[in-house]
Amino acid sequence: MFGEGILKGLAETARNFLGSYVSKNRLTTVQYPEERLPQIEAYRNFPFLVYDGDDWQQGLRCVSCFICEKECPPKCIIIEKSTDKKPDAVGKPQFYPKVFNIDVSVCMSCQICVEVCPFDAIKMDTDYELSTTNRFSALLWDKHRLAKSNEHYHKIHPTEAAAVDAALATERAKVAAKAKAAAEAKPAAAPATNPNGASTTAADKPVPTASEK
Amino acid sequence: MSTVTEPVRTRPTSVADAGESQLLELSMGPQHPSTHGVFRMDVVLDGERVMKLKPVFGYLHRNHEKIAEHETYLGSMPYTDRLDYICSLTNNWAYALAVEKLAGIQVPERAEYIRVITAELTRFLNHGALIGFLTQDMGASGTPLMYAFRERETILDLFESLTGARMMCNYMRFGGCRVDLPAGWLDQARKFVATLPRFLDEFERLLATNEILMARTQGVGIMSKELAINAGVTGPILRASGVNYDLRKVDKYGIYDRFAFKIPLGEHGDTYDRYMIRLLEMRESVKILNQALKDIPEGPIIDPKTKIRGFKPKPGEAYGRIESPKGELGFYLVSDGTANPYRYRVRSCCMVNLTVLEQLCIGHNVADVVVILGSIDIVMGEVDR
Lengths: 213, 385
What we know:
heterodimer; A: 213 residues; alpha+beta; three-stranded mixed sheet; 7 helices; B: alpha+beta; 15 helices; 45% helix
């Protein structure tokens, strides 16, 4: 019968229309922004710089090694190295970034900076409501804008952050053991320890992050 | 397009012998909603009938290949997401396969399974979206597309929880994958795949025998076997013309030789066959997904010796190709031993498939051009690169 196929299709749409009143599977839209879907843990948007402790300037893990700047595919990271060194979280003198800018209008959220960073200093953020009225300076994020605490990292990516902290702790214990051995040989030199836990070590070997395993 | 200077004509073409009627040159696109992006067609019309058609592309050209020659091998991976932005994971796979061939890297078993699962999910969402867009072009505004997108959302959620992004996944790595499956992902995927046959039945009932769809597509844009083979057409539209050529069977890349699935073939090579072949391929994808989700082993997902930074393959060349949802997607790489490829070339299936557009459209009405273009399944990101 001519028209049978159309009727069959219309029966299908009717089933979906009526089903949308009873079945969640048939009505999948949510009324953003009043209603929000729970965030998926692996979600990534733009990078941020992790710092330990309370002071963002003191605890920044970045030692401005320029690896992420070099590996970034669209070249959106701009780093200027400091001329002096300042003690990092474990008290070891390190270079720090005098300037660390990310042009988020260029960044394509590919996560390669996170993968190549040997110090676990740069991670991906999940903030997505970022519209601004200025398309130049407001989209060039400086290091103050980029710096976020390790607690923030734990909040947005709990599994990954726990793995990173564990890897860092192992690495730190190794360094501490080495320092202790050196201290026993030379009793005068005491190893500096960090009370709050996570810290940056200037180990030559990159610490494998959870995402690379 | 110069190969067909003499189209099949049933009516006069030049102004002189047309008598009272005049030819009309019409520019469709690049902002036309039916052109799937920024694609322009110079159409010469006699009344409603297409006399000549010249595809014009390049509006989305962004130097993909040249950029890749200045990037590291890994640095090109996120750019491949942006080729065919509907199916970023198959693009990743094709590129990773080329580099693995170039450097002779082995892929662990679990990673191969993950690749197959993500690739078949990608095929599913691509074909669903394609049918949605095709019917949208015919005037079925929204309904089939929304049904397809409902399923696509679930697949994209799976992708997001695995890779961190819905569309720009950047997931494959040379010698495996970036991260392992998160806890519970496989169960979630199995549960979802179990619902797919029901969705496919529904999707088929919605349209397959619809008289309007049949009137608009049957006998429209017939592509002969010879034309398809001579033009180098690949993918579902080649199989819709009855040529049994699927790289998953021919090349058996990855671990496709382990799965039992069939290659659906068309008979007439018209738009309806091209529509139907997608539905059948989605069913075969579900079969592969069921097998892969059942058999996936535990183990590493990447060879730990593969370098992330400072990756320098030995001098040589390699061509890696896969059956992407749209056809044969290949990457040809020449290495000179440095960290950047000496030459990086994309064999884009969309671009090659588009070359037959004129032959398919000549003699049809202008409204059929939209339908034929929709059934070829192009994404301008890959055509223009």
